[in-house]
Amino acid sequence: MKEGLLWFDNDPQRKIADKIKQAAKRYQTRLHCKPTVCYVNAGEFDGKIDEVDGIHLKPAANIRPHYLWIGVEHDTVQTTA
Fold this sequence. Notes:
By secondary structure, the protein is an alpha+beta fold. The protein has one domain (4-71). The chain has one helix at residues 16-31, and strands at 4-8, 37-41, 51-52, 55-60, 67-71. A five-stranded mixed sheet has the order 1-5-2-4-3, with helices on one face. The radius of gyration is 12 Å and the shape is globular.
């Protein structure tokens, strides 16, 4: 992923899937395409789910806790009409 939306959410009551859905909605509103990948802090990635609404989750050591980096993986662009 070359560029994406950095999303912060430190609400302990909200599930990670809900955080990703909210970030994806904002990404789609701003950039007019559906995100395909979301990088999550490696320590917060439990491995139980690896996809949310078609968005692949990937653990990354360089993503700080409570942040998500969401965007479109290289070579895949899905526009919305």
